[in-house]
Specification:
Oligomer: single chain
Number of strands: 33
Largest sheet: 9 strands, mixed
Distance between the termini: 69 Å
Structural class: mainly beta
CATH class: Mainly Beta
CATH topology: Tachylectin-2, Chain A
Mean pLDDT: 92
Shape: globular
Low-confidence stretches: 1-18
Strand content: 35-45%
């Protein structure tokens, strides 16, 4: 009898594992509550976001032996809070980026070198994710919505060279062979839902600002020189828009992840990054300078923005992060744009873009006011990328981007030094070997309960 019951249990578990509604196994704890030792924080709830099997991405490619027949979907590139369900669950919308991709050495072709990325699932369609949190129990992805341009699905593949949003990268398959470009390429990095149930998303390629309807269909698509300031085309590759917010008055705000690199000369000279305001009704835009605290970084271009969320019409919370001199930094800042000047037409005394201004010259520019709220690392945050930020009734929510659970491993005569190898004719030079393997980092959603809700703050 015992053997029969054991066999029945094994069969039931196997059936659940292959059910499209079954949840993926947990890598850590489903839920953990922490009494944080921080003057601004009452408590921290940490959830591992579980994924239905139907939302995993089938994979049987060159590195399939390292994975269990599929790859995880990663919904943590952006986050928006949508309220509570009838069952009392917290409802969020997350977004994933351009799909399962991994670092690879430069491609050498016709004597020239070009940056590259390996795309394990080239047909992946960027998508939104509805995330439900049952307080004190667990978090899960309920469903996803693929993004479409009319009848055609969006793609995560890079945009052709010469087109707005081209990153200059060559996409490779998992045999290091070149993949085609896509004119519908999107690398989403932020999401916010409006009162009508539509979404605004931002991307790193363009950088693009795109409005979607409730089904994921593109309604409006803004690009540098096409509804957005043309100077934004000088974003560093893969450092376009990283965060998006919607104010109560209906204006949309998009934050550029890092300093602009104008004519390839300003990324390490600039001392600020840009936040763009768009009025969707009039089409008018303004730009504000967010000052970077560069004493913590070896180079200005290492500082990054993760996401932002509106508190009211002039104040926001923002993720400020990057690889600092003493390790990774993940900060939550409060910012105020009410007294900041529009820098759209502002130039240096010599007529250059403001990114070339000296520190002394920038003292005459009214930038965004910044006040630190908390350091996620002090609360126990371990992930590299805090990329989604949402405002709760009594605090904030933060989610990480785990890069679809992937990482590259290089080996050979030059060790793991990626700069020492090149891809030529589908192989690595210098006898190098490349593999893609799990990074074992889950998608984690933190609910940080504050002692004083941000909405009640009278000033910074």
């Amino acid at each position: 009898m015992r053997s029969s019951l054991a066999l029945l249990l094994v069969l039931l578990l196997a059936a659940c594992a292959h059910s499209p509604d079954a949840l993926s196994p947990l890598q850590g704890k489903a839920f953990e509550q922490v009494a944080a030792n921080h003057p601004a924080v009452r408590s921290v709830e940490r959830y591992e976001v579980r994924l239905p099997q139907r939302e995993r991405l089938p994979y049987a490619g060159a590195f399939a032996a390292a994975f269990d027949g599929s790859l995880p979907y990663a919904p943590g590139s952006g986050l928006s809070y949508a309220g509570r369900s009838a069952e009392g669950e917290l409802v969020f919308w997350g977004i994933g980026d351009r799909g399962p991709n991994a670092d690879s050495p430069s491609v050498r072709k016709a004597g020239r070198e070009q940056a590259s990325k390996i795309f394990l699932v080239p047909a992946f369609v960027p998508r939104l994710a509805e995330i439900r949190v049952r307080p004190g129990e667990g978090a899960r992805v309920l469903r996803t919505l693929p993004i479409h341009f009319g009848a055609e699905p969006a793609s995560g593949l890079p945009i052709p060279v010469g087109q707005t949003g081209a990153s200059g990268e060559q996409a490779l398959d998992d045999h290091l062979q070149p993949l085609p470009f896509s004119l519908r390429g999107l690398d989403p990095e932020g999401i916010v839902r409006d009162r009508a149930g539509n979404f605004w998303i931002v991307d790193e390629y363009g950088p693009f600002l795109t409005q979607l309807d409730a089904r994921g269909q593109v309604l409006r698509h803004y690009a540098p020189g096409k509804g957005l300031p043309e100077i934004l085309a000088a974003r560093q590759p893969n450092r376009g828009f990283e965060g998006v917010a919607l104010s109560p008055s209906g204006k949309v705000y998009a934050a550029v992840q890092s300093t602009l690199d104008i004519d390839g000369k300003s990324k390490h000279q600039a001392r600020f990054t840009r936040i763009v305001e768009l009025d969707p009704v009039s089409g008018k835009t303004r730009q504000f300078a967010y000052p970077l605290d560069l004493k913590h970084y070896r180079r200005a271009g290492d500082a990054k923005i993760g996401d932002l969320v509106a508190i009211d019409d002039g104040r926001f919370a923002l993720i400020d992060q990057g690889a600092g001199k003493n390790g990774m930094r993940n900060l939550i800042q409060l910012i105020d744009i009410r007294d900041a000047e529009d820098i759209s037409e502002r130039r240096t005394q010599s007529g250059q873009a403001l990114e070339f201004a000296s520190e002394a010259e920038l003292k005459g520019v009214r930038m965004v006011q910044v006040k630190p709220l908390l350091d996620l690392r002090e609360l126990g945050w371990q992930a590299e990328k805090a990329e989604g930020l949402a405002l709760l009734e009594d605090g904030i929510a933060v989610i990480n981007d785990n890069d679809f659970g992937l990482q590259t491993r290089l080996s050979g005569a030059q060790g793991d030094n990626g700069g020492a190898y090149r891809v030529e004719n589908g192989k690595l030079t210098a006898g190098g070997q490349l593999s893609v393997e799990p990074n074992h980092e889950p998608t984690s959603l933190w609910l940080i309960r504050l002692r004083q809700p941000l909405q009640s703050l009278k000033g910074f």
